[in-house]
Automatic annotation (TrEMBL):
Annotated source species: Cinclus mexicanus (American dipper)
Family of the protein in this entry: Belongs to the GOSR2 family.
One GO process term, biological-process aspect: intra-Golgi vesicle-mediated transport
Name of the protein this chain belongs to: Golgi SNAP receptor complex member 2
InterPro entries linked to this entry: GOSR2/Membrin/Bos1 (IPR027027)
Gene: Gosr2
Keyword DNA damage (UniProt): no
Length: 204
């Protein structure tokens, strides 16, 4: 507990430390946190050797201390991250103020050509997708027409078979073949729809 309170006290000095000493304070806090973690590992071993009636409370105490130290470690890292961002922004601002721009400075030129090329590529991709979708729609329409044709053919075959008095076995064979043709047609339609979906999914 005493070591945790000492680290908490050092954490309070971070916000008030100047640029020259803040690194020293951070290093001191990190060293103390590492030392506490090392002591907690030994305490965990000792708590496991406590009598059964005391073991649970000892373990809870160690877990609480570990949680407190992990919270301090996270707070330190968050402070270091904020400091790094603040220092980076200050450096960028100083570099910008110290820099002198000329009329033809290449770094200040807007990359218009690259933007135009990107837009043209994007429009070309959209045109390709529209053409692909249109082609898929035509294929589906063709499959639907074939389905209507197959239905009509099937009916005509049955009518002719009835007129010729074909046997029931031949009739069943004809119906089986018609069912297989219908299954193949539906499978083709489903495959075409799946391909169109995948193309739209991965090209957009």
């Amino acid at each position: 507990d005493r070591q945790v309170h000492e680290v908490q006290s050092y954490m309070g000095h971070l916000e008030t430390s100047d640029k020259e000493s803040v690194h020293l304070v951070e290093n001191e806090i990190q060293a103390r946190i590492d030392n506490i973690f090392s002591n907690l590992e030994r305490l965990e071993i000792l708590s496991s050797k406590e009598p059964p009636n005391k073991r649970q409370s000892a373990k809870l105490r160690v877990d609480q201390l570990k949680y407190d130290v992990q919270h301090l470690q996270t707070a330190l890292r968050n402070f270091q991250h904020r400091r790094y961002l603040r220092e980076q922004q200050e450096r960028q601002r100083e570099e910008l103020l110290a820099r002198t721009f000329t009329t033809n400075d290449s770094d200040t030129t807007i990359p218009i050509d690259e933007t135009l090329q990107f837009n043209e590529s994007l429009q070309s991709a959209h045109r390709g997708m529209d053409e692909l979708i249109g082609s898929g729609t035509s294929i589906l329409a063709g499959l639907r027409d074939q389905r209507v044709t197959l239905k009509g053919t099937h009916k005509k075959i049955l009518d002719v078979a009835n007129m010729l008095g074909l046997s029931n076995t031949v009739m069943r064979l004809i119906e089986k073949r018609a069912f297989q043709d219908k299954f193949l047609m539906l499978g083709g339609m489903a495959l075409t729809c799946l391909i169109m979906f995948l193309v739209v999914q991965y090209l957009t």
